[in-house]
Design a protein that fits this description.
The structure holds two protein chains of two kinds. Chain A is mainly α. Helices cover 55% and strands 7% of the residues of chain A. By secondary structure, chain B is mainly α. Classes of the chains: A mainly alpha, B mainly alpha.
């Protein structure tokens, strides 16, 4: 349809590239997440609950 | 490395006043947006509900409903949740009180302006991006105020690490900024009107890159952040897996942005983009369900609360609806499934499963949890909240199930063929409309139940507020501020090896990909050198590199930049080639014929009335579409359409080939599938010519004059955008052409016994409708066909010449 570039040819490689790109991102992040230290994970996971402890309220 | 430590104890009072404001605004706008939804649902079944008033037609109110639901209801709820949780996760007050006030009042002003301008017919004609350009600028300014306030809060926080909820908020802020700005780039023609700078396929791609990701980054990521904060609070236990939340975040942010083209499957969009959209949508299953399971499993051990606590009920159901919607979305993105579901009510059911179930229920859960704490009291009635839950649940199920049945029924009927696929089984579109009317009624009932539930929420919260008094949370902070010096400061900033290498490798890779000749060679060389240098540095630096990611959790700006990169890659890969290459000058084959001044005026009225909400202008590459509407739409046939009008829903039939040739004896007047007087009668009262139609009457079009005062400005804007209007065209010439064509149509109508003045809007709209689908063949194509013909002695060039120009 176009003079210079027929992108439809990309259909052959787009699925493979999509998969490897996503797979790569997923693996890197998963490996990194699995390498978190337990203390760090516990601390981060409890952050929403920690703010309960010292909080008080004042009249607005 | 050396560090110094100072310890201080301070009492910080949170700014919960603004949280209360946003929460109340959210409830008020929920009632407005949901009521508008019920009204427009009733209009689809009972055309009388349009009240024969131009300000209340479906075409004008549907954008009001969607904008109110997304930006007013969910927007305010999101700001309340973000401001409440961010202060507590950062253990500090919001960045700046004045910015918070500007944010709140600015956002409400935007909503009020939208509520005024949309019913008046001021629209850009792009879904969820209808607001006119002055409001667009206001939105951008207020959003930046929000961003500044948010990042200011992060900057003065007393908690080193950034919890995952804050990551989702950061992704929301940066990505919505990017999406909103790009999709709203416009060329103003007056204070109230503009044309999008992208046209045709470019506009379609940019619009659905925005539209899809508005769902992703306005309706999903902030609510996921809210889920990661409020579900653990309500359950009284930490998130099921913090590791999974990290994987959820990065996978979602990276993948979501690529999926936009799944809104344009089987259309004239290039095939590789359709493939990308479909594949990334399917791959979204993994992170979406990872996040959904993480949310649900956070309730482990707290399931007993499900029986009594309405907050947990709403959260559990909301997260489940997130799972359902994110299962259904990828399913509908499979090209063959999409052939059935697209342009049908199935899409409407899918969208409402997400908004009513995920957004609405999460909003209700958060509101019931927050209100007693913000007003230091108990919830007025747990029983009423529980009843709200069940009313809402039944309402959603009725709504969604009805739309599934409606969409699949109409989709199957529209695609059904006989005689070995050569004839349509239901050639009359209205037959398929009548078949789904009962389902449209169930939708109305379901929506009504859901709305009733929200009225109960409003009453419950009103009584709760009345019984308590507003309080602000405070926190005693022992801030052990680690003042960084030397290497550590450098490492946490931008001048650290990982960031530098990333920038250098990306820069040289860009030269490699986009460059030619020497630039390409330089790109190859430096990509290799920097990659090797990075690997070598990694090997020698040891443990420091493994700490890099952890540093991101403490350095908001670096984290934000990486989020922008992750979210921007998908958009850049899809949009840049489309914008740079798919222009009119590169088209081979069918090229749209530019609109005459009268047709352009008619088109602006068509856009202003929101006709695109019900009529598509895109015949898909599917046999039933072609049998019903004509030859499939080519990419070049809408290349000058600013905005594109491919549509997303066919409540009425497609109009891409509604127009026709210039009539014998006429200079400009065209007549297509139907005569001028048919269009006249159809616009004034559709049921005169289409028995059973649910289209509103547009009888004011015959009484109101078309505005021609800014016509010259519009043509100049179009010319600047690449539409081939003559440069030397004077206003007199434009108006002469306008009047000539209008007079020809008026004379033709008079011959049929219909009398109307040529200045009226209806004449311009008829001219536009009769132009739809007009194209010419490009010179290159003609030449190519001629050359081919010399090698094919038995075929004539004439056979390839369209009869439609």
């Amino acid at each position: 349809m176009f003079k210079r570039i027929v992108y439809d040819n990309w259909t052959n490689i787009v699925p493979v590239l999509s998969f490897w790109l996503t797979f790569g991102v997923f693996i890197v992040i998963t490996v990194r997440a699995l390498c978190f230290k337990k203390d760090f994970v516990d601390h981060m996971g409890n952050l929403p609950l920690e703010d309960d402890t010292p909080e008080t309220e004042t009249k607005a | 490395m050396s560090t110094t430590t100072r310890t201080a104890t301070t009492t910080i009072e949170y700014d919960d006043k603004s949280v209360r404001w946003f929460l109340i605004a959210s409830i008020v706008w929920a009632l407005v947006g949901l009521s508008a939804g019920v009204l427009v649902a009733s209009q689809l079944n009972f055309f009388q509900m349009n009240f024969n008033m131009e300000w209340l037609t479906f075409g004008r109110l549907r954008p009001l409903h969607t904008n109110a639901a997304i930006f007013a209801f969910v927007g305010n709820m999101m700001f309340a949740g973000i401001y409440y949780s961010t202060q507590r996760l950062c253990r500090c007050r919001l960045g700046n009180d004045l910015l918070t006030k500007i944010h709140f009042f600015g956002w409400q002003l935007i909503i009020v302006l939208a509520a005024i301008t949309l019913p008046l017919g001021y629209s850009r004609g792009k879904e969820y991006a209808e607001l006119i350009w002055p409001i667009n600028i206001l939105v951008a300014v207020i959003w930046l105020v929000f961003a500044a306030n948010f990042f200011w809060t992060l900057a003065k926080r007393n908690e080193k690490s950034l919890y995952v909820a804050i990551w989702f908020y950061i992704a929301t802020i940066v990505t919505v900024t990017m999406l909103y700005v790009v999709n709203h780039l416009s060329l103003p023609t007056s204070f109230l009107h503009s044309y999008p700078i992208f046209g045709g396929v470019q506009d379609a791609l940019v619009q659905w890159w925005y539209g899809h990701n508005a769902v992703a980054f306005f309706l999903t990521t902030p609510i996921l952040g809210i889920m990661y904060y409020f579900v653990p609070k309500a359950a009284g236990r930490p998130v099921y897996s913090y590791r999974l939340s990290v994987i959820h975040f990065w996978s979602l942010v990276f993948i979501y942005i690529w999926a936009g083209p799944h809104h344009l499957l089987n259309t004239a969009l290039p095939g590789w983009l359709q493939t990308l959209g479909m594949l990334f949508s399917l791959m979204l299953w993994a992170p979406s369900w990872g996040g959904m399971l993480n949310g649900l499993l956070t309730l482990r051990g707290a399931w007993d609360k499900l029986r009594t606590d309405p907050v947990i009920k709403f959260f559990a159901a909301g997260v489940t609806f997130y799972g359902m919607a994110t299962f259904e979305g990828p399913l509908m993105s499979i090209k063959s499934v999409n052939a059935l579901s697209h342009y049908s009510d199935w899409t409407i059911g899918h969208v409402h499963g997400g908004t009513l179930g995920w957004n609405g229920f999460m909003a209700a859960g958060m509101t019931y949890w927050l209100a007693p704490r913000l007003w230091n009291t108990k919830l007025y009635s747990q029983g009423m909240a529980n009843l709200h839950f069940w009313l809402g649940m039944v309402g959603i199920l009725l709504y969604v199930a009805a739309m599934w049945v409606s969409g699949i029924t109409q989709g199957l009927m529209l695609n059904d063929t006989i005689e070995q696929g050569t004839l349509l089984k239901y050639p009359n579109f209205l037959d398929t409309l009548q078949a789904i009317r009962p389902m449209m009624l169930f939708r109305l009932i379901g929506g009504g139940l859901y709305l009733t539930g929200f009225f109960m929420l409003a009453f419950n919260i009103y009584k709760t507020v009345k019984s308590g008094s507003p309080v602000n949370g405070t926190v005693e902070v022992e801030s052990a501020m680690q003042e960084m010096t030397g290497d550590e400061k450098k490492f946490r900033g931008y001048l650290n090896p990982p960031v530098i290498y990333s920038v250098l490798i990306l820069g040289s890779a860009a030269m490699l990909i986009f460059g030619k000749g020497p630039v390409f060679l330089v790109g190859v060389f430096f990509t290799g050198v920097f990659t090797l240098a990075a690997i070598s540095h990694f090997e020698f630096s040891g443990a420091k590199w493994s700490e890099w990611y952890d540093q991101l959790l403490e350095h908001g700006l670096t984290f934000t930049v990486l989020t922008i990169i992750a979210a921007a890659i998908g958009g850049a890969v899809q949009i840049i080639p489309t914008v740079t290459v798919q222009r009119a000058s590169n088209i081979e084959g069918r090229l749209q014929i530019a609109y005459t001044p009268l047709e352009l005026t008619g088109r602006d009225i068509y856009v202003s009335e929101g006709c695109y909400n019900c009529h598509s202008q895109m015949i898909r590459t599917m046999t039933p579409d072609i049998l019903r509407y004509g030859d499939y739409s080519r990419l070049g046939e809408s290349i000058y359409d600013h905005p594109f009008q491919w549509g997303s829903k066919r409540t009425g039939p497609d109009l891409a080939r509604e127009g026709g040739d210039i009539q014998k004896g006429a200079e400009l007047m065209r007549v297509g599938k139907r005569s001028n007087d048919w269009h006249y009668l159809h616009l004034v009262d559709p049921r005169q010519v289409s028995d059973g139609s649910n289209m509103p009457n547009y009888d004011w079009l015959q009484f109101k004059d078309a505005k021609t005062g800014t016509l010259m400005s519009k043509i100049n804007a179009m010319r600047m955008l690449g539409v081939p209007y003559d440069i030397g065209l004077s206003e007199e010439e434009v108006m002469a052409e306008y009047n000539l064509q209008a007079q020809e149509i008026v004379d033709d109508l008079a011959a049929s016994g219909v009398f109307v003045e040529k200045e009226k809007q209806i004449v311009a709209v008829i001219a536009y409708l009769q132009k739809l689908g007009a194209f010419e063949m490009t010179n290159e194509k003609k030449k190519q066909e001629k050359e081919e013909a010399t090698h094919l002695p038995f075929e004539s060039v004439a056979t390839a010449t369209p009869a439609n120009n």
